[in-house]
Amino acid sequence: MALVLRPAPPGVSYAEVLAHDSGATRVVNGLLGAAVGIAGYAILSTLVASVVFLIGWNASGAPGDLGAYATAGQAMEFPLGMLAAHLGVATLIPIAFGLVVGMHRVQGRWLNSVQPGVRWRYGLVCLLIAAVVLNLMLWASLGFRIGPMTPQPDAAWFLVVIVLTSPLQAAAEEYFFRGYLLQALTLIGRNRWVGVVASAVVFAVFHGFSQSPPLFAYRLGFGLLAGALVVLTGGLEAGIAAHIVNNLCSFTYAALGSSVAAAMATTEITWANLAWTLAAFAIFGTLAWLVGLKMRVATRTPA
Known about the structure:
The chain is mostly helical. It is built from eleven helices and no strands.
């Protein structure tokens, strides 16, 4: 039997594109979809990373123990570790689309925006805004005094992996957390802002339990901003743009100024760092929303 896919309901926000069902059915579908997505990620990401490490270990001449090699890679001691991690996170994209299509029987293009599909022009403008705002605010927090750069060993290879895979990793997190999970949690909570808040909390917790309160607040704040932008602009483009720029800059500065391993092992930031980053996200979010209004991007599905 052919799989019959539906468009999103007419005249609804991005958070409500899966809301064809009613009553207990929508709650069950939301709970089941969220659980399957998280479990599927745990399995697929581990599998992908293991395959990458196995291939890299064999290509390097099988040095020492495979388990020790993989542990060093997970600590980002060499570029292949970042490649494995980012490709593992990238599995969130097929998981998100698979749940929308396979479980909810909705056409996958509605996961991008309420247009539906990707609004490339708006996304590129947001990318430019994010590149300017997030970097300016970072430099301002340092008093525009950038210290001497001391690139880590293999910095060139790290940069290749960062440029090629960080955008994929950032987009994957947005497609799952601000895309599918926000929609699924909206089904459960019956309110789009419940979906925004709940998905932001899951996103922050997803990054580990050893975070300091300011670091947790940083990730929670980003999740809330990106979720609000999804509702206010009708799609994932603004959140993806901010996430890509944030990760590209963070990893690049780490590779050139200290080490990627140290950056990835960070479990705390100061309250001052939190204030600067949240201010940067707030400025970006405001500009992205205003540009969306100027460009008349759709915020609801066609009536």
